[in-house]
Amino acid sequence: MLVFVTVGSTKFDALIQAVLSADVLQCLQAKGYTSLVVQCGNSRTDEPVPNEGKTKMRREGVDIELWKFKPSLEEEYENADLIVSHAGSGTILDVLRRDKPLIVVPNPTLLDNHQQELARALSEQSYLLRSSVDPSELSQVIRDLVPSELRKFPAMDGSRFRQILDEEMGFL
Amino acid sequence: MPNLWRITAFILLCTLARLMWLIFQSRGTKNRHVPRHRQASDTCSLAVFLGSGGHTSEALSLLSSLDFNRYTPRKYVVSEGDILSAEKAVSLETSKATSASSRPGTDYNILVIPRARRVHQSLFMTPPTALRSLLACVFHVSIAPLISSGPGSSSFADVLILNGPGTCFVLCIAVYLNRFLGRPSPRLIYVESFARVKSLSLSGKLLRPFVDRFLVQWSQINKGECRGWLV
Fold first, then answer.
1. What is the CA angle B77-B82-B88, rounded to 5?
2. What total of structural domains would you count in chain A?
3. Quick check: is B155 in a domain?
4. DSSP strand E in B21-90: where?
5. Nearest CB to B213: which of A90, A118, A168?
6. C-alpha to C-alpha distance for A52 and A58, rounded to whole angstroms
7. B5 vs B3: CA distance, rounded Å
8. What's the CA angle centered on B190, arms B188 and B194, to 5 degrees?
9. Residues of chain A contacting B229 with CB distance shorter than 8 Å
10. How close does chain B come to A62, measured CA to CA in Å?
11. Domain residue limits at A52
12. What is the CATH number of the domain that holds A163?
């Protein structure tokens, strides 16, 4: 099974370090996740990652590909069996609407903590799992993950905004 | 000289009173204006500001739920250099045109405005660029509709949808200039991001007193109107 990790459009060193830690890799391997694709953005990595293309390696029985930026994230979401991401709302919506299991890791270095709030609110409703950047916590969350126990995220309900606008403009 | 002061003070007072009245009119849901009734077959012109990144995604997602045969023509306002937002707007239009019966590609356009403030720009340099941005907005919202001719072009739009970031405030100021002068102006609808669970964003706080409808997507915020998730 394949895990896709994304940090969004900026960088998130701590998340990259956590997913590449021996703890987390062993955990993934034990659960049957033997392929890992990481979109690192501008995060610092131990192995150099080219601007174009990927760096390949194998650690703890997991085949790993490191990319700076992948041209299409949609394709990665589609192929993955599990996604680990920063808590950006765009990524969260994209992944949950595809009914893929998602673990979000809010970036503690961001000044505004609204990403934390979104991650907490959605994990309280069991739409996703949440972890800190601590490798042992992330390992535990992966160990406890049962994809079928996550709640199905509702499809977008376009009628709500349509109705508000029709109301406001005098159509209703 | 004292007369000049008195006249200036009087004008300022009148300006302030008019502004307060306009803001008062736009606020709240109880005393809000009763919308002009439109027939089901009527059309309504629409403008939307695409603030790049997550703002653009959410704004286009809101638009995707609308009937483009009813909300026509459409104007997409993007910041200078934000090619990605313009591309996303075109791709929404293309997908709508193939899925519905609307005439493809003819009933929308994309307006570009200079950025009010660039990322990493020093605070000191903000006033000149913000002014340039404001002038561009005033041109599109107030002046262009006056000089262009043709059906439906006498006003900028019937409704303007905003969802941040702060730059969209200059558009709001341009709309208020029209209101101040008694010219036709769009209804202003602000939609706070899905990402804001407990607190408003800076642009939300800034625009809340001025817009006609202020929507939030999480009921925990307790400010504005909530009808659940909209995107």
1. 75
2. 1
3. yes
4. 44-50, 71-79
5. A168
6. 20
7. 5
8. 165
9. 154, 156-157, 160
10. 33
11. 2-168
12. 3.40.50.2000
Alpha-carbon span B172 to B137, nearest angstrom: 9
List the domain range (segments joined by +) for residue B79: 43-226
Residue A130 tokens read as 């949440």
B44 touches chain A (CB under 8 A): yes
Contacts of A165 in chain B (CB under 8 A): 66, 71, 159, 189
Q: How confident is the model at residue B27 (pLDDT cuts 50, 70, 90)?
A: low
The pLDDT score that the predictor gives to residue B105 is: 56
Q: How far apart are CA B70 and CA B88, in angstroms?
A: 21
Digit-coded pLDDT (tens) for B124-168: 777 888 899 999 999 999 999 988 765 556 789 999 999 989 889
Residue whose C-alpha is closest to residue B173's, from B162, A164, B72: B162
- Rg for chain A (alpha carbons), in Å? 17
Query: Does some domain include residue B12?
Result: no
Banded pLDDT at A163 (limits 50, 70, 90): very high
Omega cis (within 30) before A50:
no
- CATH number of domain containing B54: 3.40.50.2000
CB contacts, 8 Å: A118 with chain B: 194-195, 197
In contact, A77 and A4? CB cutoff 8 Å: yes
Predicted complex ipTM exceeds 0.85: yes
Confidence of residue B116 (pLDDT cuts 50, 70, 90): confident
